[in-house]
């Protein structure tokens, strides 16, 4: 499914845009002008990677120290141990779209249990 | 270099081992740990582990698919380092010669003199400490936490969530004034009162009362605070006694350069036992932060593998976090030496704000409560302005 995220012109380099779907996904615009989409929630604890430290093709979780590779979703260091999903990004007519992966996400335990219970 | 021994198998030791392999070291790698456990994560021990939200398997720091091709010598304490051969003596009587040594023996919780042998009195540093405390807190009752620092505050917050009656005793007039300064220390420690946890400040602890089990904490002003369980959270001391006489210079831990090099060639120090030279302040500092134990070993390993012929990089400013009463607290930089602190965003009353510490107008530290996005921006800015 293709989900419209935001206009490319509204997402400056070095910034991220979060899609409030469940689970949330974020689009990152790197300083080099590339676009990537990954799951927004750190796999260690409930934190938004869109709030994190973007450097090159890596984003560091805003709370702790794990960095995720935007290209592969791989994590480099604890406390997170599992990768995030990556998603396809398409730009059409100046609009950014995300094709959300159909794989199962790696959500931190607290978020996974909340989602399993369904909407509050 | 054919054998590298990493003494200490916690986050700093594991990070050093990973860095060795990542940098292409393919010789013999030995990790020595005094605890019987493989490397595990300590921050949850004062929080989610005590409540049962995470279990022991969740604490593992190694990934399932990870293989460092290392020899693990666990449950054995290092007792000495022989300088001429860089040989490590172990408590089991064995001896191991190494070409390179990484000192990562960490720090041990300070205890209260006279509390030995009294049931119900705990410190919190290791997994075994946390197991014992978790079982005790499950019984409920009255908890007295001695020490209003971060560990003490986190235990108080967790115990409150578990339904215990909690009192925190702090000898200083304001908790957290050391790391955060008086004003912000007061604001952060006000979280206790928000949740009905009693905070007694500016009064020292004279001792504990109880026959076989603690029943009260006795204060220096003559008061007694009834207690079913006591947690002593009064800091930690570096585990470096075993290095006495080794030729490794000791001064509040292992005195080392900004790249971890010690006074002995082929020996570097990382983590809580290391008293690093800090280019930000021009002094030596022992920084007991998780992120330091994660990030700094790479510089030390680079130094070790290059036989000291490297220029130390500038580490990122020290960063730590704490979670108390559902509030995320983040801090970066050095509050000591700041001449002003101002709230730049949000409101302290809302427990959601960002405060910037400055020295002569230049930002030197940032504190955030429930402001991760803004905090990240400031952290980047502070790092970019590094010396």
Describe this structure in words.
The complex is a heterodimer of chains A (about 120) and B (about 375). Chain A has one helix and nine strands; from the N terminus they run E-E-E-E-E-E-E-E-E-H. In chain A, about 10% of the residues lie in helices and about 35% in strands. Chain A has a six-stranded antiparallel β-sheet with strand order 1-9-8-4-3-2, with no helix packed on it. The longest helix of chain A is centred in the C-terminal third of the chain and has 9 residues, at about 110-115. Chain B is an alpha/beta fold. Chain B has helices at about 10-20, 50, 55-60, 125-135, 150-160, 175-180, 180-195, 290-295, 295-305, 370-385; strands at about 5, 30-35, 70-75, 80, 85-90, 95, 100-105, 105-110, 120, 140-145, 165-170, 200, 205-210, 215-220, 225, 230, 235-240, 255, 265-270, 275-280, 285, 320-325, 325-335, 340-345, 350-360, 360-370. Chain B has a five-stranded parallel β-sheet with strand order 3-2-1-7-19, covered by helices on one side. Chain B has a five-stranded parallel β-sheet with strand order 9-16-10-11-12, covered by helices on one side. Chain B has a five-stranded antiparallel β-sheet with strand order 22-23-26-25-24, sandwiched between helices. In chain B, helix 1 packs across helix 9 (about 295-305). Chain B is globular. The two termini of chain B are about 35 Å apart. Classes of the chains: A mainly beta (about 120), B alpha/beta (about 375). At the A-B interface, loops of A face helix 8 and helix 10 of B.
């Amino acid at each position: 499914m293709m989900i419209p995220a935001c206009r490319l012109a509204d997402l400056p380099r070095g910034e991220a845009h979060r899609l409030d779907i469940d689970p949330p996904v974020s689009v990152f615009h790197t300083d080099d002008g590339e676009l990537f989409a990954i799951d927004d929630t750190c796999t260690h604890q409930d934190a938004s990677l869109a709030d994190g430290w973007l450097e090159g093709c890596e984003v560091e979780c805003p709370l702790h120290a794990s960095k995720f590779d935007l290209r592969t979703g791989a994590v480099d260091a604890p406390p997170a141990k599992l990768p995030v999903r990556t998603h396809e990004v398409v730009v059409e007519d100046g609009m950014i779209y995300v094709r959300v992966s159909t794989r199962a996400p790696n959500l931190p335990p607290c978020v996974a249990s909340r989602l399993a219970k369904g909407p509050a | 270099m054919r054998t590298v021994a990493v003494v200490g198998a916690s986050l700093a030791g594991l990070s050093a081992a990973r860095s060795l392999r990542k940098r292409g070291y393919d010789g013999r790698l030995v990790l020595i740990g005094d605890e019987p456990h493989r490397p595990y994560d300590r921050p949850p021990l004062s929080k989610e582990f005590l409540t049962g939200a995470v279990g022991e398997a969740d604490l593992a720091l190694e990934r399932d698919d990870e293989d460092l091709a290392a020899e693990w010598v666990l449950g054995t304490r290092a007792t000495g380092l022989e300088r001429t051969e860089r040989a490590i003596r172990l408590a089991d009587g064995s001896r191991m010669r190494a070409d390179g040594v990484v000192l990562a023996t960490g720090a041990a919780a300070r205890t209260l003199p006279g509390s030995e042998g009294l049931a119900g009195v705990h410190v919190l540093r290791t997994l075994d400490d946390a197991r014992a405390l978790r079982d005790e807190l499950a019984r409920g009752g009255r908890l007295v936490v001695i020490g209003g620092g971060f560990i003490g505050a986190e235990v108080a917050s967790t115990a409150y969530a578990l339904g215990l009656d909690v009192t925190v005793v702090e000898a200083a007039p304001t908790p957290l004034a050391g790391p955060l300064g008086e004003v912000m220390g007061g604001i952060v420690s006000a979280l206790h009162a928000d949740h009905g946890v009693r905070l007694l400040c500016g009064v020292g602890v004279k001792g504990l009362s109880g026959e076989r089990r603690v029943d009260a904490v006795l204060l220096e002003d003559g008061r007694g605070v009834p207690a079913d369980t006591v947690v002593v959270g009064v800091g930690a001391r570096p585990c470096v006694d075993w290095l006495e006489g080794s030729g490794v210079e000791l001064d509040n831990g292992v005195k080392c350069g900004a790249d971890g090099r010690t006074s002995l060639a082929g020996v570097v120090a990382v983590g809580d036992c290391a008293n690093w030279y800090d280019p930000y302040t021009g002094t030596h500092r022992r920084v007991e932060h998780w992120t330091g134990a994660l990030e700094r070993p790479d510089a030390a390993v680079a130094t070790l593998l290059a036989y000291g012929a490297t220029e130390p990089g500038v580490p990122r400013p020290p960063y730590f976090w704490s979670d108390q009463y559902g509030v995320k607290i983040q801090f970066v930089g050095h509050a000591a030496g700041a001449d002003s602190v101002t709230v730049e965003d949000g409101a302290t009353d809302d427990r959601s704000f960002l405060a910037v510490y400055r020295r002569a107008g230049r930002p030197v530290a940032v504190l955030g409560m429930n402001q991760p996005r803004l905090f990240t921006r400031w952290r980047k800015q502070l790092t970019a302005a590094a010396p």
